[in-house]
Amino acid sequence: MSWTNERVELLKKLWSEGLSASQIAGELGGVTRNAVIGKVHRLGLSGRAKTSSSSAKPRRPRTASPAAGAAPKKPVQQPQMIGATALKVDTSPAPVADIKPELEPMPEMVIPISQRATILTLTERTCKWPIGDPATDDFYFCGRVSDAGVPYCAYHCKIAYQPVADRRRERKTVAQAS
């Protein structure tokens, strides 16, 4: 069913009277509770009147009454703590290790024009390291001989693959800096 003006007015009236979305859906017929909630949201309706059935009744505080003839239980002693110490934030600064990575400087590699490869000349044994901007005409791949099972030559493997220990150390220093 569609939302006609009459159905929208009835929805507004029932909503202001404090009916639930399920009750309004039952009154209107042909719509679901979710459809009513969606329409109320789109109309921007807010604040409903409290119904008599939903008003809170005053509750009696629960008291533990011992069973007839049974001795009252002794309270269990809990360790005494002041505040929420389990979630207390340790404000002392973490020790910062002064680690200097020992990277061997890599000389810039110049690839002769005769060894440069295009996408059409790459094979499984040529280095596939991209050099330059792919959108320009002077883009090429390294093209040097690569080891079996590795896409790059020895030089580009040193750049592409870092030992796991180095990566973890680098990650820790970045996390401590931020």
Which structural traits does this protein have?
mainly alpha; two-stranded antiparallel sheet; 5 helices; 2% strand; single chain; 178 residues; flat; 2 strands
The number of E-state strands comes to 2
Assembly context of the chains: single chain
Strand content: under 5%
Could you give a short account of the major beta sheet? 2 strands, antiparallel
Strand order of the largest sheet: 1-2
Output mean pLDDT. Answer: 76
Report the helical percentage: 25-40%
Unreliable sequence segments: none
Structural class: mainly alpha
Along the chain, the helix and strand elements come as: HHHEEHH
Concise structural overview:
This protein is mainly alpha-helical and 178 residues long. Helices cover 29% and strands 2% of the residues.
Q: How does this model look, in words?
A:
There is one protein chain. Among the domains are: 5-43; 105-178, no CATH class. The chain is built from 5 helices and 2 strands; from the N terminus they run αααββαα. It has helices at 5-16, 21-28, 33-43, 154-160, 164-177, and strands at 130-131, 140-141. A hairpin with an 8-residue loop joins strand 1 and strand 2 (140-141). Helix 2 (21-28) packs across helix 3 (33-43).
